[in-house]
Amino acid sequence: MILQRLTTAIRQQSWSQILTEILIVVIGIFLGLQVTDWNEKRQDRSDESMFLVRLHEDMLLMEDIPSRVVDRRMNLLTSLVAASDLVLGKSEIDQLTKKECFAIGDSHIVSMSIPGLPSLAELQNEGRLGILRDSELRLELITLQQRNQTFKELIIEVGLYQVNLSREFPALIPARPYFDEALKEYQISYQCDLKAMQSSAAFIGGLGMNIDAYDAYLRDGLIPWRAQAQKVHKLLDFALELNH
Ligand SMILES: [Zn+2]
């Protein structure tokens, strides 16, 4: 219709008519773009709210595991260091406690499943991370993702240096499985022969490596990873006006 009117105006060389028709087309395109832009923005706001909720759910899942594991792992390192003092003869005490013996036996175990952030991955795959308007939250989410990766790599790296002491030195620290009625699962208990440990240079070397590796696992992996997860959670709580 417009094209027909424009053609007629050009044929009749009616310049004011030509200008009017062109203006109608330009204004029409401009309004069309404005409406599209407004719709996209409205969609982005709605998707942002949905993704904030989903990211928060991901964080709750992610933090559920560390809250149970971190304290246990920190306590294990404390017992491990105390046990190594005894093995190295730095103390008068001639027997390891059950906790210290267990720490030695479990000193090679650092594996941990680290949940990912599926909602963040989805946003990145769609190239829509920008719908999150809080630039600090975007930055901290990316940092958390990097920490996840670093932590996973560290677990693998640390595992290369660790020694399963009860398997390598079964006479010094034999392991026995037992069924834990409270947990309803099989656990391992260890028996420690402190005197024999003290006289084995190979055992002391292996214990030293495990302590170093365990310390790196906590200091460079678990602790900064948990701190980053808590930082992101706080920002999400703020964005969602949650207080818990
Ligand atoms: Zn929360």
Features:
244 residues; mainly alpha; binds zinc ion
Can you describe this structure in just a few lines?
By secondary structure, the chain is mostly helical. It is 71% helix and 5% strand.
Write structural notes for this entry:
The protein has 244 residues and is mainly α. The protein has one domain. Helices cover 71% and strands 5% of the residues. The protein has 8 helices and 2 strands, in the order H-H-H-H-H-H-E-E-H-H. It has a two-stranded antiparallel sheet. Strand 1 and strand 2 form a beta hairpin. The protein binds zinc ion. Zinc ion binds next to helix 8. The site of zinc ion (ZN) has 5 residues, from helix 8.
> Measured on Cα atoms, how large is the radius of gyration?
32 Å
Low-confidence stretches: none
Apparent shape: rod-shaped
Bound small molecules, which ones? zinc ion
| Adjacency order of strands in the biggest sheet | 1-2
Strand-and-helix sequence, N→C? HHHHHHEEHH
Largest sheet: 2 strands, antiparallel
By DSSP, the count of extended strands is: 2
Mean of all residue-level pLDDT scores: 91
Instruction: Count the DSSP helices.
Output: 8
In whole angstroms, how far apart are the ends?
61 Å
| Strand residue percentage | under 5%
Q: Can you tell me the number of structural domains?
A: 1
The secondary-structure class comes to: mainly alpha
How much helix is in the residues? over 70%
Quaternary structure annotation: single chain
